[in-house]
């Protein structure tokens, strides 16, 4: 789902020798906590969502105890490399830029990018039609990067620290539309705040592979890959998928 435009590549020398997080008594799962339905903080203060359920299922397969740690999105990779947590399950896109700083597991779902805007308004998504519009996206994400690279000279692009803030400005009319992950947009459109809005056009990017990030050379990567295969094979993944979506996102 998300891509650093200006990634922080501070990797300490210890990373060259790899780490053995799997040997720890308790593993820490890093996530954002502000990206429903994938990761969010519920009314009781608990971190929940698709990402969290997947992470906990993987921990169960690996037979290790895990706890969830939240982080601001912009700093989540530096926090991983500073050992604030052991792996990131936060709807993170696998990109070549990020691979310079972390290793990724196999993808655990595939994302798309799609515009949303007010119902009943003309909103074509080709570059010429979008010229002069104000478009919102979350900073340091695939959506923000795609909009800047492909539409930056045609639109006014407003970038936000969280996806929720982008939606707030859309609902209040401060932006004409928002570009974000299709599944995250789908969730917001079901909410009271999103009922006056709709998808605009087809997805503009539809092969964004989402993976779990670990520190460079960490043996935990292969443990997670093995556990991911297990939860797909035994139906656990489908149960989690069906809890959040009426369609498969694998």
From TrEMBL:
The Solute-binding protein family 3/N-terminal domain covers 26-248
**Primary location:** other
Signal sequence range? 1-23
| InterPro entries the UniProt entry points to | SBP_3_CS, Solute-binding_3/MltF_N
The UniProt entry's GO CC annotations, sorted and at most eight, read: cell envelope
Superkingdom classification of source: Bacteria
Looking up SUPFAM superfamilies in the UniProt record yields:
Periplasmic binding protein-like II
* Cellular compartments annotated: Cell envelope
Q: Name one Pfam family in it.
A: SBP_bac_3
Q: Which keywords are on file for this protein?
A: Signal
Family classification: Belongs to the bacterial solute-binding protein 3 family.
Q: Name the chain's protein.
A: Polar amino acid transport system substrate-binding protein
**Species the sequence originates in:** Pseudomonas fluvialis
